[in-house]
Specification:
- The chain folds into 2 domains: 242 residues, Orthogonal Bundle (Fic-like fold); 75 residues, Multidrug-efflux Transporter Regulator, Chain: A, Domain 2 (Orthogonal Bundle).
- The protein is built from 13 helices and 3 strands.
- The N terminus is likely disordered.
- A 3-stranded antiparallel beta sheet has the order 1-3-2.
- By secondary structure, it is mainly alpha-helical.
């Protein structure tokens, strides 16, 4: 209980800072651009897309494209960005219900699928990779979901986390359920003065684990704890570091940061591309700057690489021993 109260106190301070950003048109514009990039990267990663973070950044900021991606892939990216624009500009007056979620799905896929915005007819597995035992039709499930969305008095963050989870367990659309789930999460957060929740590449496995453990083993608090931690990191990424440009003299160039972490610059660039680390700030010329506290992200990436290498060696050893027996 003490941890939850500490989180609430911390988030209330962050909400106050965010409210100041939202009141300043220039700051809101910068915040929105940063949020778009991170939300696009998050959904691309969750959906196992092929865009790198740099390609998404160039697309959002410069409207440039690169080889290796189809017209349809860029169309989804473009449509999702426009849908984010709509949500950010209208979040205060949007009514949360299943009809609005259908509208969002249609906005993303209407030029690609004639059934965009319509509920699926065939049975599918949940995106959580758990087979669903469907006892009700989609309309009935979404009616119950509407009733949940209309509930009053629940803690705003718990409500946001639960809505995200419940929607994914239903997965009412033929495609794009993760897109809508993150839009729903973003919308509820904005309505209640919180930042959108974005994820890093290293968060992906844990995200699926806590969601599936909630569904299979009712481990609700583990899921909530993961989401609260993600929200806290999102604030550092989207608000504190993005808008403290006056402190950029205290930030490190990629060369100095690589030296601090005792790795080559090429390694930092690779981990940036893979999403393991994100610069604290980009200069107007596009140069990446880092906070020395981000050294922990590099340590996490090193540990992940070491564990992966050990597991690979162990697997080879077992296979070799099996072949000799």
């Amino acid at each position: 209980m003490g941890d939850i109260l500490n989180y609430k106190d911390k988030f209330n301070k962050e909400r106050l800072k965010l409210s100041l950003i939202l009141k300043d048109k220039n700051e809101f514009s910068k915040f929105k651009m940063k949020a778009f990039i991170e939300l696009l990267f998050t959904i691309n990663m969750i959906e196992e897309g092929t865009f790198t973070r740099l390609e998404i950044l160039n697309f959002v900021q410069e409207k440039t494209t690169s080889n290796g991606h189809s017209f349809w892939q860029y169309l989804i990216l473009f449509n999702f960005m426009n849908t984010l624009e709509f949500v950010f500009e209208n979040y205060k007056k949007i009514t949360l219900d299943s009809f609005f979620l259908q509208k969002l799905n249609k906005m993303i896929f209407e030029k690609m699928d004639i059934e965009a915005g319509q509920y699926r007819k065939a049975r599918i597995n949940s995106p959580l990779k758990i087979k669903r035992v469907e006892t009700k039709d989609i309309l009935s499930e979404m009616k119950e979901f509407d009733d949940f969305l209309n509930k009053k008095g629940e803690d705003a963050l718990s409500f946001a986390f639960e809505a995200h989870y419940k929607f994914l367990t239903i997965s009412p659309f033929k495609k794009g359920n993760f897109y809508i789930a993150f839009l729903l999460l973003t919308l509820i957060c904005l309505k209640n003065g919180y930042l959108p929740i974005v994820l890093r590449s290293i968060d992906k496995k844990r995200y699926f684990e806590v969601m599936e453990n909630y569904q299979l083993k009712n481990k609700k608090e583990a899921y909530y704890s993961f989401m609260r931690s993600a929200l806290s990191r999102s604030f550092q990424l989207l608000a504190e570091k993005s808008f403290n440009e006056e402190n950029k003299d205290n930030l490190l160039t990629i060369a100095k940061f690589a030296k601090l972490c005792d790795v080559p610059v090429s390694t930092i660039r690779y981990w940036m591309k893979e999403g393991h680390i994100k610069p604290a700030l980009f200069t107007p010329s596009g140069y990446a700057l880092f906070d020395e506290n981000q050294k922990i992200d590099i340590q996490e990436a090193k540990l992940t690489k070491m564990i992966s290498k050990c597991m690979s060696s162990l697997k080879k050893g077992i296979e070799k021993a099996s072949g000799q027996s």
